[in-house]
Amino acid sequence: MAAARLDFRAMNKLRFAMILALCAPLCAPAAYADVPARARQAFDDGRFILAATLCEAEGSAEAYAFAARARTADAITRDGDVCLDCLIHAEQSAQTAIDRDPKLAEGYVQLAIAIGFHGRIVGSMEAQSEGLAEKGRAAIDKALELDPANIWARASLGGWHLEIVHRAGSFLAGALYGAREEDGLKLFQEALTADPDSLLVHFHFALSILALDPERFRAEAAKALDAGYQDPRADALTRFTRTHTEALRELLKSGTGDEIAALVRRYQNYPPGVHASSAD
């Protein structure tokens, strides 16, 4: 089908896919020279709101970017549903970081990640009305413009490619947005090569490829999870991810494709009952 003949429903589906794709790995363990030591320790301990509050009081661009990271971590690690108000607050903190230093790539990375989770939980119509897809992709593009080697920006863009292919099918994804499975895999592999010990990168890579095809990528996902599981870091976000990794590793041994897909959707923070099936 020619791109010009795509119907409105297909276009909405692809726009929503652009939002979801930006949820990839959560936050780089980057150097934050201006982040108070107490805030870094609070983050490591899982006291994410305290970490964010301390950073916002400090007031630098780096501190506000770290505050956005902490507020997103708080939003997705709470018991029950993802906290939408927390994500909105994370977006505000990231935007403040950008306003205070438009050349700080980390502010754009954290903005894109918060927007991605936001778009995933509010639904396609609301996400489209708020222009979340355009805002999220623009933030990733700006981060890569400022810092082409940024691990988390590259991983997020890799997730963008894979999510659109997953949501819309390879033909429509490529025809309308230039999203390609091979590009997504390449970008993720570059991020993994740059930080081979990161459980967070390996875990989100596994989620992205399993969402694409739980049977075709079962062995590769298992290998990635095994590699990431060796991550020696013991901060609260890594511990939280490790618990999910353990469950997913076990399911990959003998679970059905449907069971794996359901767990992947849950770990990607889709609301209950949402299915992200391909159009192909």
How is this structure best described in words?
This protein is an all-alpha fold and 280 residues long. The chain has a single domain, classed as Serine Threonine Protein Phosphatase 5, Tetratricopeptide repeat. It is 72% helix and 0% strand. The chain has 15 helices and no strands. The radius of gyration is 18 Å and the shape is globular. Mean pLDDT is 86; it is low at 1-8.
Describe the SSE topology.
Layout: H1 8-20, H2 37-45, H3 48-58, H4 61-77, H5 84-100, H6 105-122, H7 124-129, H8 132-146, H9 151-168, H10 170-177, H11 181-194, H12 199-212, H13 218-228, H14 236-254, H15 257-267
Helix pairs in contact: 1-8, 1-9, 2-3, 3-4, 4-5, 4-6, 5-6, 6-8, 8-9, 9-10, 9-11, 9-12, 11-12, 12-13, 12-15, 13-14, 14-15
CATH class: Mainly Alpha
Under CATH, the topology can be stated as Serine Threonine Protein Phosphatase 5, Tetratricopeptide repeat
In percent, how helical is the residue content? over 70%
Integer average pLDDT: 86
Distance between the termini: 12 Å
The shape, in one word, is: globular
Q: Characterize the main sheet.
A: none
Domains counted in the coordinates: how many?
A: 1
Derived from helix and strand composition plus strand pairing, the structural class reads mainly alpha
Task: Report the portion of residues in β strands.
Answer: under 5%
Low-confidence spans: 1-8
**Element-by-element helix/strand order:** HHHHHHHHHHHHHHH
Any idea what the CATH architecture is?
Alpha Horseshoe
Radius of gyration: 18 Å
CATH superfamily: Tetratricopeptide repeat domain
Count up the helices: 15
